[in-house]
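URGENT: need a sanity check before tomorrow's submission.

F., can you look over the SNRNP25, ubiquitin-like domain record below? I want to be sure the sequence and structure line up before it goes out.
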Amino acid sequence: MESSGGKREDSVGDYNSDRVKKAKLQSTLATLLDDPILSDVPKKPTLSDVDTLINLELGSAMRISVLKLDSTSFDVAVLNSATVKDLKVAIKKKVNDAEQSQMGHRHISWKHVWANFCLAYHNEKLINDAVLLQEFGIRNNSQVQFVPYVVSKNLNKHSKRRKHRFFHGLNRR
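Structure tokens as predicted:
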């Protein structure tokens, strides 16, 4: 009995010790992230964010400036081997993080964004998500921009799937 009570106290002690260690780590991390040298690190960085920034410093990633329709811009970092899809994911993460920190919870319908706008580099639309950015000539410090994207009915690209309706066809009689 005494041993189980002793284990319980030890586990509570370990828990409190772990909490203190985690609080110290969070405090140290917050202090580091406030340093101007680390201004490009997000407030709550993921391992992939840190990995991409390290690769940027090592030269195996690139910083791309994204010009919005209101003529403001922001930078994202992606690996040199990134595709258009990877760039879109980086943009989505950057915008969502900025919106969250500035305005609290705000939902952006990225499905709507990508259905009505696309990215362009030197007037060439980046429509195929699987194509490498380097195939478009995008390098470090390049600038891409959002442009309106109108889907052509003849090409059937990005066509919207018709929703199955249970009563579809009943009014033909």
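My own read: The two ends are 81 Å apart (CA to CA). Strands lie at 61-67, 73-79, 117-121, 124-126, 143-148. If you see anything odd, call me.
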